[in-house]
Hints:
This protein has one helix at residues 2-21, and strands spanning 23-32, 35-39, 46-65, 68-87, 90-102, 105-114, 118-121. The protein is an alpha+beta fold and 122 residues long.
Amino acid sequence: MNTTIRLIFAAALLAAAGLAANAQISVQAGTSLPYQKMTQHDPSDRYARGGIGAYAGVDYDIHIIKGCHITPGLYYGFTQVSHSEAESGIEMKETQTDHLICIPVHLKYAFNIKPDKFGLYL
C-alpha cells in the first residue's frame, strides 16, 4: 500500500513538472467603457449612462497537446458609471462604482501557418 501511494505521488509530481515546463505567464491590463441603459417605472422614461473602467491581471497559458492551450486567469476590474439630471431646480447625481474579481478560463487552438513566424488562434 505504501509503495502505491509513493508511485501515485511521483506520477503527480512528474505531471505537474511537465505542465510547468509548457506553461507561460502573461500580464495584461486595459480599459473598458461601460454603458448602461436604465428604465424607470414608466417605460418611456429611459436614460443611458456611460463611464470608465480599468482592469489588470495575469494569465497562465498551459499547453495541453499540439496546438491546444487552456488559459486560466485572475483579473481585478474597476468600473465607475455616473448619471446626473436636474428636476424641479434640484440637481441629482448618481454614481455606481464596482470592484470586480474575474477568473476567466479560455480554451484556444493554434494554427501555425508559417512555423515560428505566423499563426492564428481560435
